[in-house]
Structures are given as C-alpha cells and as structure tokens.
Amino acid sequence: MKLRIVSLLVAIVMIAGIVGTVQASTQPATTTSTHLNQTMTKITPDQCSNPETTVNISTAQTSDGGLAFSPSTIHVNKSECVQVRLLNPLGQDHDFDIRKAENNGLVNDVHNEFPLNSTWTNVTTTIQFPSQDAAITWFCGIPGHRAAGMEGQFIVGAGPTSSSKTPGFELFTAATALFAIVAIPVVRRKFVN
C-alpha cells in the first residue's frame, strides 16, 4: 500500500512536469540577442509599392531616462500595405527593425536607420502585413536600445487570436503540486511508523 501511494505521487508529479514542459514548448519563440540585432546592416527595400496607410513613429525618452517609440502600439488592417514614417528628435542614432524569425515568419525582415534629427519625409519604410490576425514586434536594433525600452507592436486585425496555453492545464499543475505537498507528510508518517 505504501509503495502504491509513493508510486502514485511520483506519477502525478511527473505528469505535472510533462504538462508544464508541453505548455512552455508551444509558446512562440522570441529572440533578443545582440547577434540577431546586428545581422541586418543594409537598409531593406520597401515590401510593397502602393501604401494604403501612412503611420508616424517617433523616438522618445521616458521620464526615467529610458528610450521608447511613440506610439508603441499601432493597429493596422490584415493584408495592408503600410508606409512607416520615422522621426528622431533625440540626440542619437536609432534603427527600426522587424525580424521575420521573431514574428513567426508572418512578415519579412525590415531594417531602416534614422539618424538624429531625422524629418518625417526623408526616412520611410513600407511594410506588407499578413492576411491573418497577429502582433508584429518592431524594435531599435542598436545594441542596448531595445533593452532600454525601444520596442513596439503592430496589432494586425484583431491581434493574436489565442494563447496556446490552456488554463485547465495550469490549474491541474497547481492542484497536483499542492496535493503532492500535502501528501508528503502523510506518506512519511506511514513509512516512519
């Protein structure tokens, strides 16, 4: 009987671990390594020729001295061709980057540089957005700038549809862990006596 209880507890803990691992592996991968950020050194060509919309993105400094894009979230339509105009009033150079690998392959890589004091008209890039709901992340590829807060998202259509996490599995994992914690003293007492 004691061996059955211990075996049952071990099996429950193992199942909880497997469920947690499956959940983690189904999350989209994001890469923020400096190596990836530095691989794009040439300005990429426009992705589409007839933009339906133009959006303006400016560099900004936060009240605590961090860096940012303003706005940091922009809504666009599915399958839309969008021209992005970049403004840089800050006293340093910045990049505008999108990585296909970070965005589940839904958009092509984008790299554009906008030096300090850029005006709206001389720094633009044109992006073709996917035909499905998504969130497409952009960032400044200059080392350290993304970590300082220079990151934003295009929300395409309704945005990401659903998380691959299933709340039931999280609840199951938590309940299993709680059961194991409560059961350990009971099992110890049975073995000690």
Would you kindly provide a written description of the structure presented here, covering whatever features stand out?
Strand 1 (53-61) and strand 2 form a beta hairpin. Helix 1 (2-25) packs antiparallel against helix 3 (167-192). The strands form three sheets. The protein has a four-stranded mixed β-sheet with strand order 2-1-4-7, with no helix packed on it. The protein has a three-stranded mixed β-sheet with strand order 3-9-8, with no helix packed on it. Strands 5-6 form a two-stranded antiparallel sheet. It is of the alpha/beta class and 193 residues long. The chain contains three helices and nine strands. The protein has two domains: 2-26 and 168-192; 34-156, Cupredoxins -  blue copper proteins (Immunoglobulin-like), CATH 2.60.40.420. It is elongated and about 80 Å long.
List strands and helices in order, with pairings.
Layout: H1 2-25, H2 34-38, E1 53-61, E2 67-70, E3 73-76, E4 81-87, E5 94-98, E6 110-114, E7 124-128, E8 134-139, E9 151-156, H3 167-192
Parallel strand pairs: 1-4, 3-9
Antiparallel strand pairs: 1-2, 4-7, 5-6, 8-9
CATH architecture of the largest domain: Sandwich
**Would you count the extended β strands for me?**
9
Largest sheet: 4 strands, mixed
CATH classification class of the largest domain: Mainly Beta
**Mean residue pLDDT:** 74
Q: Give start-end ranges of low-pLDDT stretches.
A: 18-39, 164-169
